[in-house]
Design goal:
The complex is a heterodimer of chains A (578) and B (582). By secondary structure, chain A is α/β, with parallel strands linked by helices. Helices cover 64% and strands 9% of the residues of chain A. The chains are: A alpha/beta (578), B alpha/beta (582).
Chain lengths: 578, 582
C-alpha cells in the first residue's frame, strides 16, 4: 500500500481541489438520487389514498422533476471533476517516466527490451490513470451511495433492509472469489499471448528463412498450437465471466423478490406503505451499480499496484552517474585519452568483453582500431562515451578519471557515430541538426558527409521526411546521414564506429579525407574503428584488438610490414575484391 | 501503402462473414437466447405491477406469495438464459478471432519478400495481436449486445404501451428533447474520439521511435528537444481526452436526469389519470422500473459505439492486410529428385520501380559444380540468389532448374531444391532441434550427422544438445555459432542447389577455421553458387563469375582469369596497390 500512498501524495494531492469539488458534487448527486424515490413513494401513496391526491402528487412530481434537472448538472460536475485529474495525472506520470528513461544510461536500460519500456509508459500509466480517476470516483461514489441508500432503507424499514443484506453479501463474496480466480487466468493469458506474439514476430522477422526452407507448414503448426492454447484459456475465462459476472445483478433481482415476498405482507399488515415498497425496489436497483463497481475496485487497485511497481522500477532509481554530486568539468580543448588496464564485462555477463586494455591517444591525434566482430571495439567506444561506466581509474581524460567528469559536459564535447545508423521519422535536416534550422550548418553537414549528390534524388531535398515513416534511404545514405549528424557538431573528441562499411571505395576515400580534415590542427582527438584496413591507412596509429585484448599497436605501415592480424586482414580483404 | 482497406463498413462485415459462419450454431444460440433474456427482463416489472395491484393493495397474502414466487421463477429463467447467451456469444467470438488470427498469420508468412521490404514487422505483429483482440472485444461486448439492447428497448416500449398507453405517450414529450441533446453531444464526441485515436497513435509512434533511438538522443544531448516533441504530442492527446470527458459526462448525466424528469411527468400526469381510475400504484411502480430499463441502454450506447468504431478501424486494418495479394505465383510441375542443374539466360531484373540491377545474365551451372560470384557491392550477385529461390519474381529472360522454367515449377518444389545460407542467420526461439529442422520431420540421426559435418557439435553441446534452448533473437548464440548452426540447418534440409552468401562479419580464428571446413563440406556435395568473400573459397571454386553493375563480365577459373588480366585481375591489383601505399 505504501507505494500507492506515495504515488497519491506525489501526483494526486496536487489536484486535491478537483477531488474535493468532485466529492461535494457526488454527495449532492447521491443525496438527490436516494431522495427522488422518497418523493416518488409519497406520490404513489398520495395516489392510493383517497383524500385529494392531486395537489400532493403534483408537489412530489415537481420535486422529482426539479431534482432530475439538478442531477444533470451535479452528475456532470462530479464526473468531470474526478476524471479530469485522472487525465492530468496520466499526462504527468507519462512525461515524468519518459524523462526518467531519457536520464537513465544504457547500462541501466539494457535490462528491458524497448517494447517493455514502451508498455510501461503506455499500458502501465493508463492503469494508474484508471486508479486516479475512475478508481477514486468509484470508491467515493460507492461509499456515499451505499451509506445514503442503506440509511434510507433502514429508515423506511429496518426489518426489510436487513433481509436484503443477505443476497448482497452472497453476491459480493461470489464476485470476490471469482476475481481471484480471474487474476490467475489473466496472468496465464498474458504469458500465453507473449509466447504467441514471440512466435509470430520471429516468423515475420525470419520470413526469408521460413520460406527458403519451405517451413511455412511446420511454422503454422507451432502457431496453431499456441493460438489454440490461448483460445482454451480465453474460453475458461469466458466461462467464469458468464457464470459469475451477473452475480450482483441476480442479487438485486432476488432482493426485489424479497421486497415483494417479505415487504408485501408488511404492507398488508400496515407496517409499510405501498409507496415505500416501490421506493425499496428503486433503492435496491440504485445500489447495484455502486456494488458492482466496488468489486472492480479490488482489481483496479491490485493491477495499479503492479503497474506502479513497474513504473517505479525506472522512476524510483537514480541515474547511474558516479560523478554526482561533485562532477569535474570536461576539458575544453582536444584531450589526451589514456586507457589503463581496462577490463570490462557487461552487467550480467561473466566473460569480459575487454581484457587489460592499455593504450594512449595523444591530444589531437587520430588513432585507428582494427578488430574482428566481437573483438571489443564497439565496447571500447561505448565506455569512452560512458554509455557504460568504465571501472574507476581505467580511462583518463587529460589525467582526470572519466567517471568523475560531468556526463552532460562530456557528451557535449564528444561525438560518437554508432555503427548502426539510426534515423528518426522527421526531415533529413532535423535528423542532422537535431535542433533549430540553420542553413549554413546544414549545407556544411551535407558537404562533409558527401550527401550533396544524393539530395537531388530526394523529393524535397533536405526537407524530405526520412526514417520509418518517410522515404527509405539506402544503407550507405543512412550511414552518411548519421555521419553528417556527427561531423557537424562542435566537438573535441570524435569516435567513429565502423561508419564507412556500407559506402564504396571512392566515397570511403573522400570521407576519410574529410574526417582527417575535421581533425586537422589538433582540435579534435579522433578514434576510428573499422574492420576494413583501407579505412585506417591514414591513422597516426592503429590499435589491433582481438578477443578483447590489444594484440598490436603501431603505425599502419609498421603493422603492414610485420605478420599479424592487421596484415592478415588486409590480405583477406584484397581477396574479397570488394 | 495505405494501412486500411477502402472497403465500406458493411463490406467489412461481409468479409468477416466466412469467419463468423464457421461458428454459425453458437452465434445462432446466442441470438435466439437474446429475445428470451430480454423477455424475462420485460416481464418482471409487469409482475411487480400485478402483485401490487391485485394482491398487496387488496390484502391477498397468498396472492402476494404466489406472485413473488413467480417473480423468482423469472429471475432464475432470466439468469439461465443470460448465462447461456453470454457463454455462446463469447465462445463463438473467441473462436472467430482464433480463426482470424490464423488467417492473418498464414497469409502474412506466405507473402513475397517484397511485401516485407516495405512493411515494418512491428506493424504486422499488431495486426495479428492487438487488432484481432479489439475485434474480439467488439464481438462480445459491442455488436451483439446492441442487438440485445435494441430488443429490450423495443420490448419495454411495447409493454409500457400495453400497460398504459396514455402514460407511455408522456415519453413522447421527453424523447425528442433527449434525442436532440444526445445527438448533438454525440456529434461533438465522434470528432473527439477520432482526435483521441489519432493523437494517441502519434504519441505512441513518437515514443516507440525515441525509445528505439534513445542512445542517439543521449549521445547527442538531444533530450530537451525530444521531451519537447513528446510534450507537444502529449498535450494534444491530454487536451482531447479532457474535453471528451466533459461531453461524455454530459451524455451520461443527461440520460440519468431526464429519466427522473420523465418519472415526474408521469406522476403528474398519472395523478389526473387516477381520478378516472386508470393509473394504479402498481402501474406507476412498473413504469418507474421500465423507465430505468429504457434509459440504461441509452446511457451505455455511446460507450458501445466507441467500441464498435475501434473495431471497424481494426477490421479495416486486418482486411487491408488480407487484401494484399503479393504472393509468388506457383507453377504446377514438381521436381521429385532434382539433379541441381541451373541455367540463366538473358536475365534482367529491377526491384519494384527501381533501376535495373541485372542487365541480361547468362550462366549455366552443371550439377555438382561450384561457381563463385564475385563483384563489388551493387554488382547484382546477391540478387541472382534471391531470384533462384523465388524470393522475388518479375524478371525477364529465363531461369531453369533441371531444364524446367522456374515459373512452371511449384514454389514448394523450387524451394525444396534450392536452399540458401544467408549472411544474417535467423534463429527462432525454441529448441536447437526446431532451429535445425525448422519443424520438418527429420530423424535425430540425420540431424546429428549434419551437425557433425557442419562442425557445429560443440555449439550444440554448449546449448544443451538438440533439446537445448535458443532464446529470442538468438541472444544466447554468437554470430560465429549462428553461422555454424545455419550450415547444419542447410545440411539437414539437403537441397540439390545451395546459394551460399559468405558472411563478411568476421569471427574468432577457431570459429573461422570451423566455418571454412563446414563451407567445404557443403561445396563438396552440392551444386553451389557462392557469393564469396574468402580467398580460399574463390580460388577453390570450379569457375568464377565476375559481375559488374548487373552484367556478367568474366567467367573462368582463378588462374584463367588472372592470366586474362581483366576485371578480376584488376580487383586484385586495385586492392594490392591501395594496400601498398599505406
Amino acid at each position: 500500500m505504501r507505494p500507492l500512498l506515495i504515488f497519491a501524495r506525489r501526483y494526486m494531492v496536487p489536484f486535491w481541489h478537483w477531488y474535493v469539488g468532485g466529492t461535494l458534487a457526488l454527495l449532492a448527486t447521491n443525496w438527490m438520487s436516494v431522495t427522488i424515490p422518497l418523493y416518488l413513494a409519497e406520490g404513489v401513496d398520495a395516489l392510493v389514498s383517497t383524500d385529494d391526491p392531486t395537489s400532493a402528487v403534483a408537489r412530489s412530481a415537481v420535486a422529482v422533476g426539479l431534482m432530475g434537472l439538478a442531477v444533470i448538472a451535479v452528475r456532470t460536475l462530479s464526473r468531470v471533476l474526478y476524471f479530469t485529474p485522472g487525465r492530468l495525472v496520466e499526462a504527468r506520470v507519462k512525461r515524468d517516466l519518459f524523462s526518467a528513461i531519457l536520464r537513465h544510461q544504457p547500462s541501466f536500460l539494457r535490462q528491458w527490451e524497448t517494447g517493455d519500456l514502451f508498455s510501461r509508459v503506455s499500458s502501465d500509466v493508463n492503469m494508474l490513470r484508471l486508479l486516479a480517476g475512475f478508481g477514486v470516483l468509484q470508491l467515493v461514489n460507492s461509499v456515499i451511495a451505499i451509506v445514503l441508500a442503506g440509511g434510507q432503507m433502514l429508515r423506511l424499514s429496518s426489518e426489510l433492509a436487513i433481509w436484503l443484506l443477505g443476497p448482497i453479501l452472497v453476491g459480493l463474496v461470489i464476485v470476490q472469489l471469482s476475481i481471484q480466480h480471474m487474476f490467475v487466468l489473466m496472468r496465464r493469458l498474458q504469458v500465453e499471448l507473449a509466447a504467441l506474439s514471440s512466435h509470430i514476430l520471429a516468423s515475420y522477422r525470419g520470413v526469408a528463412t521460413v520460406q527458403g526452407f519451405a517451413a511455412e507448414g511446420p511454422f503454422t503448426d507451432v502457431f496453431d498450437t499456441r493460438n489454440e492454447q490461448y483460445l482454451r484459456t480465453m474460453l475458461q475465462r469466458a466461462g467464469i465471466r458468464a457464470g459469475i459476472g451477473p452475480a450482483l445483478a441476480v442479487a438485486t433481482d432476488v432482493n426485489i423478490f424479497l421486497v415483494l415476498f417479505v415487504g408485501g405482507p408488511m404492507v398488508i399488515d400496515g407496517r409499510l406503505t405501498v409507496g415505500e415498497l416501490v421506493a425499496f425496489t428503486t433503492l435496491v436497483a440504485f445500489i447495484t451499480n455502486p456494488l458492482r463497481s466496488s468489486s472492480f475496485l479490488y482489481s483496479i487497485v491490485k493491477e495499479a499496484q503492479a503497474s506502479l511497481e513497474r513504473v517505479e522500477a525506472i522512476q524510483g532509481v537514480p541515474p547511474d552517474r558516479p560523478e554526482l554530486p561533485h562532477p569535474a568539468p570536461a576539458p575544453a580543448q582536444a584531450p589526451r585519452l589514456e586507457i589503463r588496464h581496462l577490463t570490462f564485462a557487461y552487467p550480467g555477463s561473466e566473460d569480459p568483453a575487454l581484457h587489460d586494455v592499455s593504450f594512449t591517444v595523444p591530444a589531437g591525434s587520430t588513432v585507428g582500431i582494427l578488430g574482428l566482430t566481437g573483438s571489443g571495439k564497439s565496447t571500447l567506444l561505448a565506455l569512452l562515451a560512458r554509455l557504460y561506466n568504465p571501472p574507476p581509474g581505467t580511462i583518463l581524460v587529460d589525467g582526470t578519471d572519466l567517471c568523475r567528469l560531468d556526463l552532460d559536459h562530456w557528451r557535449e564535447r564528444l561525438t560518437l557515430v554508432p555503427q548502426k545508423a539510426f534515423l528518426f521519422s522527421e526531415t533529413l535536416a532535423d535528423n542532422v541538426l537535431l535542433g533549430p534550422p540553420d542553413e549554413e550548418r546544414l549545407a556544411r553537414a551535407m558537404r562533409l558527409s558527401a550527401l550533396e549528390p544524393d539530395l537531388e534524388a530526394l523529393p524535397e531535398g533536405t526537407a524530405t521526411l526520412v526514417g520509418e515513416a518517410g522515404v527509405r534511404l539506402s544503407g550507405g545514405q543512412r550511414q552518411r546521414t548519421a555521419l553528417a549528424r556527427g561531423l557537424v557538431r562542435d566537438h573535441t573528441v570524435l569516435l567513429l564506429d565502423d561508419v564507412l562499411s556500407a559506402v564504396d571505395h571512392a566515397t570511403e576515400k573522400e570521407l576519410i579525407g574529410t574526417i582527417r580534415g575535421a581533425g586537422s590542427g589538433s582540435t579534435v582527438t579522433t578514434l576510428l574503428v573499422a574492420h576494413r584496413v583501407s579505412a585506417l591507412q591514414h591513422a597516426d596509429q592503429v590499435v589491433v584488438l582481438d578477443e578483447g585484448r590489444v594484440v598490436d599497436v603501431g603505425r599502419p605501415d609498421e603493422l603492414l610490414a610485420r605478420p599479424g592480424l592487421f596484415r592478415d586482414t588486409w590480405q583477406q580483404q584484397q581477396a574479397e575484391g570488394a | 501503402m495505405s494501412e486500411e482497406t477502402t472497403r465500406s463498413d458493411s463490406a467489412l462485415w461481409r468479409s468477416l462473414w466466412p469467419f463468423l459462419a464457421r461458428d454459425k450454431a453458437l452465434y445462432a444460440v446466442a441470438l435466439l437466447l437474446a429475445p428470451a433474456t430480454a423477455l424475462m427482463v420485460i416481464v418482471q416489472p409487469w409482475l411487480l405491477q400485478h402483485v401490487i395491484d391485485t394482491a398487496i393493495i387488496p390484502g391477498d397474502l397468498d396472492g402476494v406469495r404466489r406472485g413473488a414466487l413467480l417473480f423468482l421463477g423469472t429471475i432464475v429463467a432470466g439468469f439461465v438464459f443470460q448465462v447461456g447467451h453470454t457463454l455462446a456469444l463469447s465462445y463463438a467470438a473467441m473462436r472467430t478471432i482464433t480463426h482470424v488470427r490464423h488467417a492473418v498469420y498464414t497469409h502474412t508468412i506466405t507473402r513475397a519478400q517484397r511485401f516485407f521490404d516495405v512493411q515494418p514487422t512491428g506493424r504486422l505483429l499488431t495486426r495479428a495481436t492487438n487488432d484481432v483482440e479489439t475485434l474480439g472485444e467488439t464481438l462480445t461486448a459491442g455488436a451483439i449486445t446492441i442487438v440485445l439492447d435494441a430488443l429490450q428497448v423495443t420490448g419495454v416500449l411495447v409493454a409500457m404501451f400495453l400497460l398504459d398507453a396514455r402514460l407511455t405517450l408522456v415519453l413522447l414529450l421527453v424523447a425528442p428533447v433527449l434525442g436532440v441533446v444526445i445527438e448533438s453531444l454525440r456529434r461533438v464526441l465522434r470528432g473527439l474520439y477520432t482526435e483521441i485515436r489519432t493523437s494517441l497513435a502519434e504519441l505512441n509512434a513518437y515514443l516507440s521511435e525515441r525509445l528505439d533511438g534513445v542512445q542517439i538522443v543521449q549521445l547527442y544531448r538531444d533530450e530537451e528537444r525530444t521531451l519537447q516533441g513528446f510534450d507537444e504530442r502529449l498535450d494534444r492527446y491530454r487536451d482531447a481526452t479532457v474535453r471528451t470527458n466533459v461531453y461524455d459526462a454530459l451524455v451520461y448525466a443527461t440520460v440519468d436526469g431526464l429519466s427522473s424528469v420523465t418519472l415526474a411527468l408521469m406522476l403528474w400526469y398519472g395523478s389526473g389519470g387516477l381520478l378516472e381510475g386508470t393509473v394504479t400504484a402498481g402501474v406507476l411502480a412498473a413504469f418507474i422500473d421500465y423507465v430505468a430499463k429504457l434509459f440504461r441502454p441509452i446511457q451505455e450506447f455511446s460507450a458501445k459505439i466507441a467500441i464498435i468504431q475501434r473495431a471497424m478501424a481494426a477490421l479495416s486494418k486486418i482486411f487491408g492486410l488480407l487484401d494484399v495479394d503479393e504472393a509468388i505465383a506457383s507453377g504446377e510441375a514438381e521436381l521429385p529428385t532434382p539433379r541441381g542443374e541451373v541455367a540463366l539466360q538473358g536475365v534482367q531484373f529491377a526491384y519494384g520501380d527501381g533501376p535495373k540491377v541485372l542487365h541480361g545474365i547468362d550462366l549455366h551451372v552443371a550439377p555438382g559444380e561450384v561457381v563463385a560470384l564475385v563483384g563489388r557491392t551493387g554488382s547484382g550477385k546477391t540478387t541472382i540468389g534471391k531470384l533462384l529461390t523465388r524470393a522475388y519474381e518479375g524478371f525477364s529472360g529465363s531461369i531453369t532448374l533441371d531444364g524446367h522454367a522456374l515459373a512452371d515449377l511449384s514454389v514448394a518444389s523450387v524451394r525444396r531444391a534450392v536452399g540458401s545460407v544467408h549472411q544474417d542467420v535467423q534463429l527462432f526461439p525454441g529448441t536447437v532441434r526446431f532451429n535445425l529442422t525448422l519443424g520438418h520431420p527429420v530423424d535425430d540421426d540425420r540431424v546429428r550427422e549434419a551437425v557433425r559435418l557442419a562442425r557445429a557439435e560443440q555449439v550444440v553441446e554448449r546449448l544443451g544438445g538438440l533439446d537445448g534452448t535458443i532464446e529470442e533473437a538468438g541472444r544466447n548464440v554468437s554470430a560465429g555459432e549462428a553461422q555454424l548452426l545455419s550450415f547444419a540447418r542447410t545440411l539437414v534440409y539437403d537441397p540439390a542447389v545451395v546459394i551460399l552468401d559468405e558472411a563478411t562479419a568476421s569471427v574468432d580464428s577457431l570459429t573461422e577455421a570451423r566455418i571454412q571446413e563446414a563451407t567445404e563440406a557443403i561445396l563438396r556435395r552440392k551444386t553451389t553458387l557462392v557469393i564469396a568473400h574468402r580467398l580460399s573459397t574463390i580460388v577453390g571454386a570450379d569457375r568464377i563469375a565476375v559481375l559488374d553493375k548487373g552484367r556478367l563480365v568474366e567467367l573462368g577459373s582463378h588462374a584463367e582469369l588472372l592470366a586474362r588480366g581483366g576485371m578480376y585481375a584488376r580487383l586484385f591489383e586495385e586492392q594490392f596497390v591501395e594496400g601498398a601505399s599505406a
